Amino acid sequence: MEQYSFDQLPRAVSELHQKLDSIQDLLLESRQPAPSAIELMTISQAAEFLNLSVQTLYGKVCHREIPVSKKGKRLYFYKSELEEWIKSGKKKTMSELREQLPSLVVGRKAKRH
User: Fold this and answer.
1) Rounded distance between C-alpha atoms, residue 93 and residue 47, angstroms
2) Nearest residue to 73 (alpha-carbon basis) of 84, 63, 58
3) Cβ-Cβ contacts under 8 Å for 44 (sequence gap 6 or more)
4) CA angle, 81 as apex, 80 and 86 as ends, to 5°?
């Protein structure tokens, strides 16, 4: 570690301040989610993203189980919509169900009267 004299302290503090600013800028950049380069996906890209076969994906589209956009004969999928679709199928944990139980019991009692 370099030793600084009293006369060199202002310059050293200035350099340190510049380095901290650059570190802060890097941290802020890494914190922001990078915009996805491919927001719109074809059926093959969506199948790969969902780890499904293309045929299975066509079936889900046919039964209107999955969000899709159609332009002419082509199907397109938005990555954000697919992520929300996946999240909507999440099963609740036992602790989440226990937390929800009192409100369900109160709701049923109110319906009986």
Assistant:
1) 28
2) 58
3) 54
4) 100
pTM: 0.52
Measured between alpha carbons, how far is 45 from 52 in angstroms, rounded to an integer? 10
Reading the chain (113 residues) residue by residue, the pLDDT tens digits are 778 888 888 888 888 889 888 988 888 887 766 555 558 999 999 999 999 999 999 999 999 999 999 999 999 999 999 999 998 887 878 888 888 888 777 666 655 55
The HSE-up count of residue 10 (CA atoms within 13 Å, CB side) is: 1
How many other C-beta atoms lie within 10 A of the C-beta of residue 48? 14
